[in-house]
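Box 3.1 A note on notation
Throughout this textbook, protein chains are presented in two layers. The first layer is the amino acid sequence; the second is a token string describing backbone geometry. Keep the layers aligned when reading.
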Amino acid sequence: MRPPMVSVAIANHNGARFLANAIASALSQDMPDLEVIVADDASQDDSLAIAAAMARQDPRVRIERSVEREGPGAARNRAIDAARGRWLAVLDSDDLMRPGRLAALVDEATKANADVIADDLLVFDEAPPWRVRRLLRGRRARAASWLTLESYLHETRLFGGGANLGFLKPVTNLRKLRSSGVRYDETLSIGEDQDLMARLLLAGLRARITPSVGYFYRKHAASTSHRLGVSAIDAMAAAARRLQAASPAASPALARAMARQSAAIATAGAFVRSVDALKAGRPTEALAALAVRPSAAFLFRMPMAAAAKRLLRRRWPAAPSDVGEVWFVSRQRLVGRCNGSSAYLIDLARTVRAAGLSPRLVQPSPMSLGRWPILWLKPEMRVFDAIAWRKVARLGPLVLALEPSRYLAAARAIAAQLSRRARLPSRWIGAERAPYAPGAPWDEEDRLFVTRTIGRDARLILADYAWQTEAFGCALAERARTGVIMHDLLHLRAESFRDVGQPDSAVSLDALTEIRLLARAQAVIAIQAAEAKAVARLLPGVRVLTAPIAFEPVAGPQPGRADEILFVGSNTAPNLDGLSWLLETVWPTLRTALPGLKLRVAGGVCRVAPPPPPGVRYHGFVDRLERLYGDAGVVISPLWAGSGLKIKLIEALAQGKACVVTPVTLQGVEAEASEAVVLADAAAPFAEAVRGLLASAEARADLGARALALVRARFRPPAAHSELTAWLGEDPRSSLVAAAMRERADPVVRNE
């Protein structure tokens, strides 16, 4: 077998409460060539059962067990000896890693020629998520930097008040680690990571710190780092003396740094002895300890602050949610049912509410505003019980950007539009098209906003498009299930645009990247059956649900007028391409045969469409389309590129309309809808189909009746979303851990 790129070492002793989540976070890395080594230190709880159950599910999990308690250093040394990877990553059994962390660190270390690399971490506890904090500060938090032994000792002083770099969890080149001869000091129960890093630096390994946040450090009552006793302090002092003895030729600056570290350990020791004496009712002994190191008295600020926090939590405890919270993570400009993708998302939120759950929306990026700093939320947005949007202010339905650059971009866009209408040059204005926000890279502030927004009790997190699966590793809701809303199978969409030689308005994804992103979710919600089957073949371990857009149909067919046709489309590349093709190849034929015919175009596509020829009227965005649908004799959908389900087609069918469509429009519903529309695959048959329907009100009514029958059977909410509703009602607890608890089987372990 090919050696893995990374070996993740998890030292564990009685960590059953959090172990499954730690292992799962390691397995969720965007790096299939890794192994997870659970180095168990004689646990007496359910740890081994949990690890063994996960090992049976995923062969990348291995267990190295000690039958006697030896300590975290010994457990990690066993993992080092057993590791087969090129890099070693350390993960505590109660901590978490974000997806993509290991790949990013290995890539950064390789580019920088670093032997050891660490990233920033988020410190969290049982407090509400908005209280999480980053560890790094100052220059370390702004840019990647190198680490020397002198600077490391300065920044790892015990109770020093600054960001203690000893808490960082590095990824180390395993060959360099082994050749250095450095191992974990097995006499240390606390501070073993800090000591290892110091000795690796002394051995000449190159260490680098990057400000990206990829590690979640959990603080809780049972944390080893919280149980700092006299014996642990004495062991740390002895390790510091050994470090000094190993560097007799230290520079004066390094010698001073070592001396300061030893002094900090001695001060911490005096503090711990004083606290122990006070707890035992020996105040004289406590004062004697402080007399030896008077500076230790200042450390009493820590237990005082902790007591104040406990008091505040008892007085204002975080109230758990009384209903299941379902968080939609989106970066599209969502203000209402303004286009197909937003209509679909709101449609799913309504299904969540109908299932008795609480739909909530988080918009982690201000990029979703586009170039417009002021938005007005439409009434349908009230389906969400809460909306959290980064860098905006909300006054009821009014959304105001807090970034001045948004207002400047809007002014440029307006000026450019006015210049184009006046047939004046507009390039000098610099009004660039807003980037496609859903596919834009995530930054650290986006991730931190998700962490601080989604509550610990969230039941489900739904990513709006595959790109937003980045949010799964950001939320602290460890019991939440995850799903991704797949509006399109995006790599197929990209292929369709290449076939017609047109650029897409969305960011494309290659097949491997898209599958990797979709694989982060426990379930994929596909908008149509054909794409659901394709994903199920590619990701056999992921639950795939089919949930098309749903509409309530009108009472009866609407034949409409014989002199009017309708096209509805948003400002996207498929709609612009289809409308341009229609105007160039079909409309001249229709106008010649039917001089009084009118084509009405509604939606955002009007903003980018070519100038309308005679008989064509652009309506732009129309808040309610019922009147236009009712008047139209035929609704057309001339699309030649795209993927997913064409939402405006289902909407037109629900209006009881006769529709003429291209094969691309019918993608995903060919079997169901072929008898409810007229299909045309070229300009001449498309024009002829429209003419034939306009000539017969009876034919239009018959086709409209078939359309309504289809919608009632397949696209009303109860039928369309039956799979989703069933999934929402399932037990959200981890089936894997539950299975481990049921089996209680003796785990298959090594090195017993």
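Residues 734-752 have pLDDT under 50 and may be disordered. The first strand starts at residue 6 and ends at 12.
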